[in-house]
Specification:
The protein is α+β, with helices and mostly antiparallel strands. The protein contains five helices and seven strands. It has one domain: Gcn5-related N-acetyltransferase (GNAT) (Aminopeptidase). The protein is 35% helix and 31% strand.
Length: 173
């Protein structure tokens, strides 16, 4: 099994849309109503929105491919809107890291995390930060393995009408 990481291009957006919808659904199904989930997927994981994001050169989207087939994706950018406190440092936000469930446990998420941390070091970032759902203990343990810690700050991340809370984690470099 060969894992490669490559930048997502405009013609990849249909595949990105499918993977983004599937992985978000698999991660959060059962945490909200089905109607709230579908509304959220339609609003945030549609081809137009993802295409606009991919076309923004400051918004970094990458596939992790297994033997040439997309199995996961990563999104990151320098963005302070969600957590203004981060303006104190040169900060990189890890916005999304999702792996299709049939590829869990194969080291793909680790390679994506190594990739973003290398990018952060090479570009002189002082901190990498992310939001993680307070109930997603598996993801929190994954981030903690990489030295991320809970900052003590939270933000609302509702899925439709279902309230949810994310914890802001950070890793100073």
């Amino acid at each position: 099994m060969q894992i490669t990481i490559r930048r997502i291009k405009a013609d990849d957006v249909p595949v990105l849309t499918r993977i983004a919808r599937e992985t978000f659904y698999d991660t959060f199904t059962g945490t909200c109503t089905e109607a709230d989930m579908q509304e959220f997927l339609d609003q945030y994981f549609n081809e137009q929105k993802l295409g606009d994001e991919v076309s923004n050169p400051d918004n970094h989207y990458f596939f992790a491919e297994v033997d040439g087939t997309p199995a996961a994706y990563l999104q990151f950018m320098e963005d302070y809107n969600g957590f203004p406190l981060m303006k104190k440092w040169k900060a990189l936000e890890l916005k999304r890291i999702y792996v299709l469930k049939e590829f869990h446990g194969k080291g793909i998420a680790q390679q994506l995390m190594d990739f973003i941390l290398a990018y952060a070091h090479e570009n002189n970032y002082e901190v990498v930060w992310l939001g993680v759902w307070e109930q997603n203990l598996r993801a929190q343990k994954f981030y903690e393995k990489y030295g991320f810690v809970n900052s003590g700050h939270t933000h609302d991340f509702p899925i439709g009408n279902t309230p949810q809370t994310d914890n802001w984690f950070w890793k100073f470099l």
